Amino acid sequence: MSRAIFRPLSRALSTFSHPRILRILRNPMSRPTIPLPLEQPIAWVLDFDGTVTKRDTLDALVDIAAEAKPKDTISAAWKHCTESYLSDYSAALKQYAPDSLPTTVEAEKELLEDLKEVERKSIDRVSASKIFERVTAAQLRYGAAKAVKSGRVQLRFGVNEFLHHVLSQYSQQDHSPSTVGILSVNWSRRFITACLQAARASFDKPLPEVRSMAPEFTVNTVENAEVKELHQAHSTNSPKHTEAPLWMEIFANELGGLEDGGHSTGKLCAGNISILSSHDKLLYLEYIQDQMSASGATKPIPVIYVGDSWTDFDCLLKANLGICIRDDPMTSSQRMLADSFKRLGIQCLHVHEGKTDKWGVVWAKDFEQIKEWAETEFRL
């Protein structure tokens, strides 16, 4: 089995195969009936907006608040927040890259972290606008289901078949399964959950149902103090399981108040959970890797990260293999990431070409292409 497309496996491990995190619920036959043995399982980590979905879902999330509170001036408030964000973003780029954009990977990472302040200001602005104040978890579920049914939120082509393929795989050595998780800067984990659950009904072969549980973080095994603090917060604020069964673990932000089963306070990224930037996503990916490394696994589990935008930059380079989603023509977010790789001299060939440079990044149009590649790459 070829591994030429992967960077060294010692760079990335995953907790997603931990048996306490991944459980098949209700019907064990929700997996395909013919399991596929592998030399070892694969841990897949997916971005949500623009990757699992065809387009960004932020407007759909705001629409839920607008429909839940028709007497409020949500549209005007959201327009102000959007215009202010774009203005701040443009000003920040001029401040941190006045002459030209970076030409080295490290400088690019520094710029992305500098731009996090724009995201933080935007979060504070939206929170102060009270757009999501008094929105309930039930309204989020209903609104997400409506958005999926109307086509406002659509999953990318091939997602369902890809997930069935991945979740049918297991290690020939110890029977541990290949796994899938979502890592997102989206403002509501419950919204992501509801969208995925609503999408199940649209498939002839429903998405597999898997329990989504908060990882049992063991922070004393992590050397990076920033990662310790971040994931101690995640383990403290995340429920042990979501309101309904899921088919994957989801790492994302949440609206304040919903964790306690009440109305939203309107505050975004409530508590200590805050995933705003490329670096924030990297911290979660690194923690996932460190946890498995500390568990004493005898054989490293390769991590494949799939994303579409600049906020996926660090994770795409950190994983054993990074796969960029690209439409034809590319969206503005996809183009920004593609331009970044080109500017930095990072090779990004199509996944079917089967080769990368030292950064290990390729691209694919959709999950059908990724599944086709995986079927060939990981065949015993």
From TrEMBL:
InterPro entries: HAD-like_hydrolase_phosphatase, HAD-like_sf, HAD_sf
Source domain of life: Eukaryota
Membrane-spanning parts: none
Protein name: HAD-like protein
Source species: Pleomassaria siparia CBS 279.74
Record lineage: Eukaryota, Fungi, Dikarya, Ascomycota, Pezizomycotina
